[in-house]
Design a protein that fits this description.
Helix content is 16%, strand content 42%. The radius of gyration is 12 Å and the shape is globular. The chain is built from one helix and five strands, in the order H-E-E-E-E-E. The chain has one domain: Urease, subunit C, domain 1.
Length: 80
C-alpha cells in the first residue's frame, strides 16, 4: 500500500466511511502534550496506525473490526 493509499484509508476511517481494523473503546486517554486525562475515549486503528481518537467510533466498526473494551484502563498515546 502506498503512502497516499494509507493516508486516504486513515482519513476514511476517521470520517466513518471505512471500517477500522481495531477499536479500543471506553478507555481513558492520557494526552502526553497537555497532561490531561480524558475519560470515555476510543481509539480506532487502521493498518497499524491511529486513525481516530474520540468519543464515538461507531461508524468505524464493521463485522471484521476487532474490539477491545478498555473500561478503567489508561492509554498513553503519542502522535508525531
Amino acid at each position: 500500500m502506498t503512502y497516499i493509499d494509507t493516508t486516504k484509508s486513515l482519513m476514511n476511517v476517521a470520517q466513518g466511511s471505512e471500517f477500522a481494523d481495531l477499536v479500543i473503546t471506553g478507555g481513558r486517554i492520557f494526552n502526553v502534550f497537555t497532561g490531561e486525562l480524558l475519560d470515555g475515549f476510543s481509539v480506532a486503528v487502521k493498518n497499524q496506525k491511529i486513525a481516530y481518537v474520540g468519543r464515538d467510533p461507531k461508524n468505524g466498526i464493521g463485522d471484521h473490526t476487532k474490539i477491545i473494551h478498555a473500561d478503567g484502563v489508561t492509554l498513553g498515546l503519542f502522535a508525531d
